[in-house]
Design goal:
Strand order of the largest sheet: 1-9-10-8-2-7-3-4-5-6
Number of domains: 1
Helix content: 10-25%
CATH superfamily: Dihydrofolate Reductase, subunit A
CATH architecture: 3-Layer(aba) Sandwich
Distance between the termini: 33 Å
Strand content: 15-25%
């Protein structure tokens, strides 16, 4: 993998270029899109991901405290609870992190199977829901996960981020889907976007990496770096803070 911007370099230390800021909570999103802007191919984001994207994907997970994902995306993409990876053990221990990232699911309906592999990881899964969810469903899932209510009629994503930070999980990796990313951005809690542009045209009507987002004007981003491998572009954007 080589760096194109800000300073060209034929060798890149991914742990270094994707290191988190040292202070406070930080919400990083990781998404992949085709050249024509679709976040999926054949209905799944994984169909856009090649070996180099999977490597960056693995590094971002290796660096984070918690992976935040919508329950629908978790089902569609075949998510499982996360396991510790020996290659990151020393790095995580040096930063005082848990051996494996926590999986945090956003679900308003709580249509989740407590016997699924979403709840069998090294760390107890977190489920973020709203007060509108059935109490019986909350009780059922509380046997296998930490269920946190944020919001009344729907999940309050800003409060959800605060809840994860309060659990000692400040390095938050949002893996979507597009509606969840839109909600996080709209709540003003997105700090960074890591976007892989896959060298593919998909056509069709697939969603963009943010779906349903409404903004007053254009949201500007600052490009922190641009990497390339096998025709894939890996951009890291920072959200300016005023």
């Amino acid at each position: 993998m080589r760096r194109l911007l800000p300073k060209p370099d034929d060798t890149v230390d991914l742990l270094e270029v994707y290191a988190h800021p040292a202070d406070g909570g930080w919400v990083r999103a990781n998404m992949v899109a085709s050249v024509d802007g679709s976040a999926v191919a054949d209905g799944r984001s994984e169909a856009l991901s090649g070996p180099s994207d999977k490597r960056v994907f693995g590094v971002l997970r290796g660096l984070c405290d918690v992976v935040l994902v919508g329950a629908g995306t978790a089902r569609a993409e075949g998510y499982r609870a996360l396991k510790a990876r020996p290659s990151y053990a020393d790095h995580r221990a040096g930063l005082g992190q848990r051996p494996a990232p926590v999986l945090a699911l956003v679900s308003g309906s709580l249509d989740l199977d407590p016997t699924s592999e979403l709840f069998t990881g090294a760390e107890r899964t977190v489920v973020l829901t709203s007060a509108a969810a059935e109490e019986s469903d909350r009780t059922r899932l509380a046997e296998v996960a930490d269920v946190i209510v944020t919001g009344n009629k729907s999940v309050d994503l800003s409060a959800a981020v605060d809840a994860l930070v309060a659990l000692g999980l400040p390095r938050i990796l949002c893996e979507g889907g597009p509606r969840l990313l839109a909600g996080v951005a709209q709540a003003g809690r997105l700090d960074e976007l890591c976007l892989t542009t896959a060298p593919r045209l998909t056509g069709g009507e697939g969603p963009r990496i943010v779906d349903g987002l409404r903004l007053d004007g254009v949201a500007e981003l600052d490009l922190a770096h641009l990497l390339e491998e096998d025709g894939n572009l890996f951009a890291r954007y920072l959200v300016p803070r005023t």
